[in-house]
Amino acid sequence: MGYLSFFCRAESTVSTSNSLTPSPSFSSSSTTTTSKKQNNKEKEKPIKIQHFHYSDLEAATNGFSERKLLGEGSHGYVYKAVMVSSSSSFASAPEFIISNNEVDNEIDILSKIQSNNSKLPNWGRRVRLALQTAKEIDTLHSSTPPVIHRDIKSANVLIDRNFNARLAEVQCEQPNNSLYTFTGNLILQNQTLPVSPNQLLLRGCSLRNTEYIVGVVIFTGHETKVMMNAMNVPSKRSTLERKLDKLILTLFATLFVMCFIGAVGSAVFVNKKYFYLHLESSEEGGAQFDPRNRFLVFLLTMFTLITLYSTIIPISLYVSIEMIKFIQSTQFINKDLHMYHLETNTPALARTSNLNEELGQVEYIFSDKTGTLTRNLMEFFKCSIGGEVYGTGVTEIERGIAERSGKKIEENISSNAVREKGFNFDDPRLMRGAWRNEPNPDNCKEFFRCLAICHTVLPEGDESPEKIKYQAASPDEAALVIAAKNFGFFFYRFKQLHCFLLRTPTMIYVRESHVEKMGKIQDVPYEILNVLEFNSTRKRQSVVCRYPDGRLVLYCKGADTVIYERLADGNNDIKKVTREHLEQFGSSGLRTLCLAYKELHPDVYESWNEKFIQAKSSLRDRERKLDEVAELIEHDLILIGSTAIEDKLQEGVPACIETLKRAGIKIWVLTGDKIETAINIGYACNLINNEMKQFIISSETDAIREVEERGDQIEIARFMKEEVKKELKSCLEEAQSYFSSLSGPKLALVIDGKCLMYALDPSLRVMLLNLSLNCHAVVCCRVSPLQKAQVTSLVKKGAQKITLSIGDGANDVSMIQAAHVGVGISGLEGMQAVMASDFAIAQFRYLADLLLVHGRWSYLRICKVVTYFFYKNLTFTLTQFWFTFQAGFSGQRFYDDWFQSLYNVIFTALPVIIVGLFDKDVSASLSKKYPELYMEGIRNVFFKWRVVAIWAFFSLYQSLIFYYFVSSSSLSGKNSAGKTFGLWDVSTMAFTCVVVTVNLRLLMICNSITRWHYISVGGSILAWFIFIFLYSGISTPYDRQVSFSLHSEAGNLIIPR
To answer: Which strands sit side by side in the sheet containing 77-83, from one edge to the other?
Structure first.
């Protein structure tokens, strides 16, 4: 193996031998010797390390030319070279980069075969492995750009049973940040094997339930998917920040006006009658005051005043706001124990600090249902098999419906009822093999087998019904497999027949009870040939399996809409009855799926499987091609029945929604459930009540079904668009009549996905928006992830309202990113929603604290910080502006440079930050007790132009008082030295008035004052006096007096309020 350090091209075939005479090269004429085995053991001879002289290396590489440079290896630079004597190519590294000891040690390590086998391979096999590996390294060196293998050692060379190097080529997509998609191929032994996310182990993940693996590193470093996701959510800016930008532009306009006035005044002021000022002299006045060129005077003065009045632009405002928001997020939101979920040990998480105040202005909330409003803890509750309903339980929704109608439901629980996590089913007709006595036992058997086979669940732990655990992609799948187990079809083992679950089949083992005769248990292996996985577009999952007797069967489960479209003709009675059962289940708030199957002819399957393999191996549009291939086999299905799974509401959801409604927030629920399920969930969580007038726009009407049965897609689209338009117009007219009447009822809109698709058409979306904005609650059913985002954007852009989206799964990501504020719930559907969100919480009820407490406080605080910054900077700058009139528009500064530099940094910096962190008008408990206070943020009460104008008025009159009162009272005044007050004396007194007033003014606008307010305000004022006391003692070019005389004069001034 040591030769691998030098040889990069080896085409020869070397016969096996037990000993080799080391030589500097191998060629096609290489000779081999053989020796006899001694006691069936092979004696290894030490490999002599071949050294090359530096001059030979230099000559072979043309003086280490850059044209020969392959790249940088682990110990130095790697060059491609040819020895003239042997015509053998090798890669080398110059001696001045690596020492001989390092080379010797590296080659010595490579020379030792690290094998787990009890018997080491003979030397001939070792040489063959070395040559095979060298050939592949040469392929890497010949690629563009050249690739350097930085970790060549025997442990990294995989061999097969025939002691051949297991060399393969991996083709895959470019590095990207999509954690849940991967497209690639593995070319191994002239076979192309497709690689999907199922074979991809992400950085930071742990592999379970396997002893060892053989892996290939695909992406490294910053190209790994995890690292490419290690970035912030796409930056969003709050509405208040965008309004702040307009305010800054207004200040720039004000700055220009002030400078223009001063520049015009300067051009008018300079005149020849002021000859004694020598304005035309280049030594005294310079060109800036030359009366002979007033336009130049105007321009120069303009630029001078821009520098002088630049303090009107609050540059430090953005720094202060970012600091305040960061502390609000990390110390207040993230550490709020009221939003800490003890069961999952999950605190709230602010993933961005840009949108804190946006939380205080939300008017529309778009919420997913499953896992967001509900617990996402699925329990198998009821089912329909062959037109017969099974399950006697009563759901929370059914109890709520009964209470609203004044009825009382008593639930009779059987003494033999089975209770298990994921299984809350009670019906003795199916339990313990009693299903064999039902009128439709064959349907029951197919139903249970479909549950046990059609899934991607992995079993863990002991192979016993009591101890086994299932790892599933979703709680729904786990609940269905658990149900199959309790019905006597126990899926207990999953076995991969080969390393790659790609072309080769997989075996699953199901322990079936009561199939042949009562009491008999048999373990049945099913060969899984193909899995057509579920996604939000297909809304179904299929599995092709081979029975032990050779039969090929396709099992399919999915949403009722997609399954019914693919059913074979016939059995109309069962289809009709099952559809009625689905509506009953939906009315009870249950999640439904339909189950179907079909037997496949081997020839049909083989023909289809070739297309499936081709689509599976495609590097481009693999998902689309797989969907197209699935359509070729998922048809003419036979309906088995349907399942009904209960997902209970989270704790505190109804109370939270009621509180948010009182706060003036409108809540929309966007779900993929049936329309009956969604309506009843709306009732259960107080989103909809009996006093509301409901507008229901559904595609489940007799007229639409009649058109759909004809199968003409163009006619269906035209007819549905006209029907949706008619319904929208009718509902909008009725809604406007209710809206004009003050005593009219509150309105609720319910619309399903098919109708929503047409309602979002550009010609109808305005009508949909107007109708929706007149409703207090909106429920969208059977919607896709794209439709969720479209509805969110419709309100965000069309109504110009602040929106918030909240969800827990990957299908909510687009909706979360489309809203002004995205909130992810860290639940059982993975972390996709959290990673795409701006804020993350564990339960929906925490939304009340996030909005009504932290959102409202942040909005109030940021508004005060912005308006106060505007006030204090404008006040300071206007005093300088008034002095310009008295200074002949000369551009003479009124304040000392240090005063201007430290005004925003020290003398007024800390108090405004304290206000931004601790100010609050009411406590957290009162904020939730009286949620109506939140409407101030929705109406943007604290940051309107009227509010800005009031603060501007304060700055205007206070700056006038500061300047003219101080300057006029100092005309005849004298200091302790008997001298009249000069410019710096008057400006110091005026600056003292500004510092004291703006700091005390801040205390006046605070809703709550703590010791930190007193410390910050008092400390800022004290800092000014300490500074001027020390600064007045420094010798400067200006005639400054002692600070005591200045401050005694300033103390006589009245501080305006």
So the answer is: 69-72, 77-83, 88-92
Dist. CA 71–CA 279, nearest whole Å? 71
Instruction: Give the model's pLDDT for residue 280.
Output: 60
> Other CB atoms closer than 10 Å to residue 509's CB: what's the count?
17
876, pLDDT greater than 80: yes
* H runs (alpha helix) in 87-233: 100-110, 123-142, 225-228
The most distant pair of C-alpha atoms in the chain lies apart, rounded to whole Å, by 125
Task: Read off the pLDDT of residues 469-510 as tens digits, 9 standing for 90 and up.
Answer: 888 878 888 999 999 999 989 998 877 655 443 444 688 899
Integer angstrom CA distances of residue 30 from 6, 24, 653, 912? 17, 11, 81, 85
Please, which pLDDT band fits residue 804 given cuts at 50, 70 and 90?
A: very high
Q: How many helices (H) and strands (E) does the chain have?
A: 34, 26
Gap between the Cα atoms of 46 and 60, Å rounded: 28
- Binding residues, as ranges, are 368-370, 477, 534, 557, 591, 671-673, 782, 788, 808, 811-812
Element of type H or E holding 658: helix 653-662
Task: Tell me the C-alpha to C-alpha distance, in Å, between residue 20 and each of 11, 30, 121, 927.
Answer: 18, 11, 14, 86
Determine how many CB atoms are found less than 10 A away from the CB of residue 853.
Answer: 26
Q: What percent of the chain has pLDDT over 70?
A: 79
Catalytic residue among 368, 426, 560, 647: 368
pLDDT at 401 over 90: no
CA 169 remoteness from chain centre: 33
pLDDT of amino acid 707: 84
Please determine, for residue 746, whether its predicted confidence score (pLDDT) is greater than 50.
yes
Which of the two residues, 473 and 523, has the higher pLDDT score?
523
Query: What does the DSSP 8-state code read for residue 808?
Result: S
- The sheet carrying 388-390 orders its strands as 388-390, 379-385, 638-646, 591-600, 552-558, 540-546, 521-532, 506-513, 489-496
Confidence of residue 930 (pLDDT cuts 50, 70, 90): very high
Closest-CA residue to 942 (of 951, 932, 953, 930): 951
DSSP string for residues in 310-358: GGGS-HHHHHHHHHHHHHIIIIIITT-GGG-BTTTTB--EES-STTTGG
683-727 pLDDT, tens digit each: 888 888 888 889 999 888 888 888 877 777 788 888 989 999 999
- 883: which residues sit within 8 A by CB, 6+ positions away? 892, 894, 963, 967, 987
Cβ neighbours for 549, distance < 8 A, ≥ 6 positions apart: none
Q: Please compute Rg for the chain using Cα positions.
A: 40
Which residue type, as a one-letter code, is found at position 1023?
A
Structure tokens at 767: 């009508």
854 DSSP assignment: I
Annotated binding site for ATP: 368-370, 477, 534, 557, 591, 671-673, 782, 788, 811-812
Given the structure tokens 């998480």, which residue do they identify?
A: 349
Reference 1038, options 896, 888, 901; nearest CA is: 896
Strands (E), 109-224: 168-172, 184-188, 191-195
Which of 88-92, 237-241, 594-598, 1051-1055 is predicted with the least confidence, judged by mean pLDDT?
Answer: 1051-1055
Q: Hey, what domains does the chain have and what are their CATH numbers?
A: 2-166 (no CATH), 170-231 (no CATH), 309-321+854-1050 (no CATH), 360-374+647-841 (3.40.50.1000), 428-560+583-646 (3.40.1110)
Confidence of residue 909 (pLDDT cuts 50, 70, 90): very high
Tokens of 419: 């209770």
Which of helix, strand or coil describes residue 572? helix
Is 549 tagged catalytic? Answer: no
Q: Cα–Cα distance between 795 and 801 in angstroms, integer?
A: 7
Q: Are strands 364-367 and 803-807 parallel, antiparallel or unpaired?
A: parallel
CA–CA separation, 427 and 381 (whole Å): 10
Task: Give the annotated binding-site residues for Mg(2+).
Answer: 368, 370, 808, 812
Burial profile 82-94: b = 16 or more Cβ within 10 angstroms, e = fewer: ebeeeebbbbbbe
pLDDT of residue 849: 96
